[in-house]
């Protein structure tokens, strides 16, 4: 797969190696660079430890060809997924593979200090067990962020996050890029790049205590002018209201938006009204798996409402795949079934025939894997690769200068 010319020469080579091991000839062909240029860049990347030789492969009629790949010993990535009711953290290698992860239930978005304290402890455990440097960090939050400032859009109910600096709290774990993003974007990136790589446009619907949506095009999420694109959870539903004796409005304070009438809080409120105590997505899932008919009916009904709400969006965008994920889909496909049935009826026949609605395949690992992808994108950007290579050159120059000084002193001593 050839890379676009807008990338720098070194980032083009690294981009291809992220897809798998390649020979110098293959890199030359796919980048359009000369053989000498590719050779020189590979030498530079080997010198900094980012690239290594994968193995020797004998080609027909010739000598063994060296296959180059990213060097896992170059470092690791720390990743986090902060939800409204949980915190997860993990460690990712240079190939984007999630090697380990931890998680705990926590009203994370109610207390940023407590959430970061948990993440600090988890990150510390991963760092102490890693034998390689931490090259980058990525944290996903359950709210959209302004792409120009990286500031989260928070409601009045979560105003404590407004001036809270995640980078300041956790930035000490790396001197490399620190990425903060929307959790649903990370989940969507992971599903599209790993499970649906041939789909150019993919929509991801996340259903947990809230409702999120992301649309990925050619591997990257579409965020809109100010980062608020596809906030379908807060589309007002005419004539609808949160059900239950104690209504639970969405995080923005509305009780007539999609999240308020079909998200996890709405389901929990309705169940309490019917005499069933379930206040978290885990408790709701446990009851559904146990076969509670009232809970199962509520999950399917929520899926129907969500499907009806996103049908116009599917019609406008015509995505190849719609993926349904989130905590309330982890152990039951009832919400997915409701979305599939309702959205299928709400879109034109032509689009209905071309779109596939499917459950997420990466489960609760998707947010962490996608965060790792975003961190690697930043780590291997043209700008950051220049910094890595420049730092290596400076070290080499310092070493040569030090060696020259030692040689001069030795010569003086002999004189």
From TrEMBL:
Pfam families from the UniProt entry: ROK (PF00480), TrmB (PF01978)
Domain Transcription regulator TrmB N-terminal: 14-57
Similarity remark: Belongs to the ROK (NagC/XylR) family.
Name of the protein in its database record: ROK family transcriptional regulator
Source organism (scientific name): Arcanobacterium bovis
